[in-house]
Design goal:
The chain has 16 helices and 26 strands. It is of the alpha/beta class. The longest helix has 21 residues, at about 275-295.
């Protein structure tokens, strides 16, 4: 059937255009649902340096991998425009916080550390100059949307940055500095500091507060105090919220949505803050997102809702909707979140394909129906990831990208970036992106594997959001239906190389032509089966329009 490849490829492209959804900004893309999202997570400072002018000069040299290394917002934009994320089939980019972090440094017992990672906020109202400018953020979001890619920003409400000689502590009516969390129950997980010298926002307090003195002084020096106060007054008047500490931060975070048109939040340290805080953040974020779309009708991508995905550390998909503190359980899905990061996957990835796919399809279709989880194999703060030594890189991609649920690629998963560099603690997970190694022949083949799987997933919502049928012998049918849209695929993994018979069941009609997108090999369905002759052990089947074929 190889003589038909060019024709079939043409038909596939045309068929995709006919069935794809036309976005308001002019891009044509397959049907999108957050439940199938393939998300690329990166540390902004560690990804790509496109602007040397904002490189930070440390007053005191940091410990290994604990200082700024030059990555910036323009670096993300450069790779968006280059098409790097398109090739990987990325639906959304999630980056570490871009807000201004502490100016000084701390010694956590692992050496001098700076706030390169973005989680040590100094000012929620300003972009960190070491990463870029507001215009850089605006340009990045526009570039991403033009490519059909959404932007997720990291949102932190639980704590400020550490206190240093140049970063004063906020007032006591805003933060606590002790005790440290002991995680014995709900209270000792929330009304406490994660670590020493990481001031905890008093989100449980019902006491109305004013602007922290340290922040007010900073704004005055920057000649923007009056404007910030005016905006806060307008926010509290519009919403009717009391002036509690966390409502200030909600206002500042949702300003990012109204200003730049970002599409979602990955929310940090969720279990360390009362669940009602997140519900309020979701309500105000959704309002802000709708406001932005009304103000920017030509720039909006579609009518998808604002996404809230939460990091509830040690949440496992096996727990369903609940997280257990010991003395009480909380349903975060009912408190602002569409999905939670799934800490189960790194263990489940050791299961067989059948066990893995069936478990996730069953749980998402039953206990978590209407919600999702974000699966990952490695991250910036998980010292026990799946395949830390990067010895099962192909299997990592196959399992992560073909398992039901959302997928999160951590920068460098696709290129086997080392997770064991010479550094202490979680810094070993945060080396600079290994761009030089991308050009090695072995990595070219590995990256191509990630690209094929990612593009197939992006083009087919059935992969991550569809119902799963196990046909046996590691062959799986997936079906996704939404209103009048239907998507069906057949996935086969761990197959023999060379000719192989793949059962298609009811997913494709008799006589239907299908294409294996992994090998670009076509076949005709006969007696509910197809024969694919390829040198690969993976088959990714999608249908080809017979009508379009006959017209040619």
């Amino acid at each position: 059937m190889s003589k038909y490849l060019t024709l079939f490829t043409f038909c596939l492209v045309l068929s995709s255009c006919l069935s794809g959804k036309k976005a308001s900004n002019g891009t044509t893309a397959p049907h999108f649902t957050w439940d199938n999202a393939n998300v690329y997570f990166l540390l902004t400072d560690r990804f790509y340096n496109a602007d040397k002018s904002n490189d930070f000069q440390h007053p005191i040299p940091p410990a290994p991998y604990r200082g700024y290394m030059g990555g910036d917002i323009k670096g993300i934009t450069a790779k968006i425009n280059e098409g790097y994320f398109d090739k990987l089939g990325i639906d959304a980019i999630w980056m570490t916080p871009l807000l201004q972090n502490i100016e000084g440094y701390v010694d956590e017992g692992t050496g001098i550390s700076y706030g390169f990672h973005g989680y040590w906020t100094k000012d929620w109202t300003k972009i960190d100059a070491r990463l870029g400018t507001e215009d850089d953020v605006r340009e990045m979001v526009k570039a991403a949307h033009k490519k059909g890619i959404r932007i997720l920003m990291d949102a932190v409400i639980n704590h400020t940055g550490p206190v240093t000689p140049t970063d004063p502590q906020w007032s006591n009516d805003w933060v606590r500095t002790e005790p440290n969390c002991t995680y014995k129950d709900y209270k000792t997980t929330i009304e406490c500091t994660l670590v020493k010298n990481l001031p905890d926002i008093k989100t449980e307090s019902k006491k109305e507060v004013g602007i922290p003195a340290a922040l007010a002084e900073k704004w005055k020096k920057e000649d923007r105090y009056d404007q910030e106060v005016k905006e806060l007054d307008a926010f509290f008047k519009r919403t009717g919220y009391p002036r509690l500490a966390y409502y200030y931060i909600i206002k500042w975070l949702t300003d990012l949505i109204r200003e730049f048109g970002i599409d979602g939040f990955r929310v940090d340290t969720v279990k360390h803050t009362e669940e009602n805080v997140w519900k309020d953040l979701e309500i105000e974020s959704s309002k802000a997102f709708e406001d932005w779309k009304k103000q920017n009708p030509k720039d909006k991508m579609d009518d998808q809702p604002f996404l809230m995905v939460g990091e509830v550390y040690n949440y496992y998909i096996g727990a369903g909707r609940w997280f257990d503190f010991g003395d009480q359980k909380v349903d975060y899905f009912d408190n602002g979140f569409h999905s939670l990061i799934n800490f189960d996957f790194k263990y489940d990835a050791n299961k067989t394909y059948s066990e893995l796919f069936n478990k996730y399809a069953h749980t998402l279709g039953k206990d978590l129906q209407g919600k999702s989880v974000m699966n990952y194999i490695s991250s910036h703060d998980d010292g026990g990831p799946f395949d830390k030594e990067r010895k099962r890189t192909y299997e990592s991609a196959t399992k992560l990208l073909l398992t039901p649920g959302q997928s999160q690629i951590y920068y460098g998963d696709e290129s086997a970036r080392s997770l064991s560099v010479a550094a202490n603690g979680d810094a070993t997970l945060r080396s600079f992106m290994n761009w030089d190694e991308h050009y090695q022949e072995s990595n070219k083949t590995l990256i191509k594997h990630w690209q094929k799987l990612g593009q197939f997933r992006k083009n087919h919502p059935a992969v991550g959001a569809g119902q799963n049928i196990d046909y046996g012998q590691n062959v799986y049918g997936r079906t996704y239906k939404k209103d009048k849209y239907t998507d069906q695929v057949v996935i086969a993994v761990d197959q023999k190389k060379g000719p192989k018979i793949i059962q298609t069941g009811t997913h494709f009609a008799e006589g239907q032509f299908v294409m294996d997108r992994y090998s670009e090999t076509s076949a005709e369905v006969k007696n509910g089966k197809v024969v694919i002759n390829s040198p690969h052990d993976i088959v990714l089947l999608e249908s080809i329009s017979n009508k379009l074929l006959s017209n040619k």
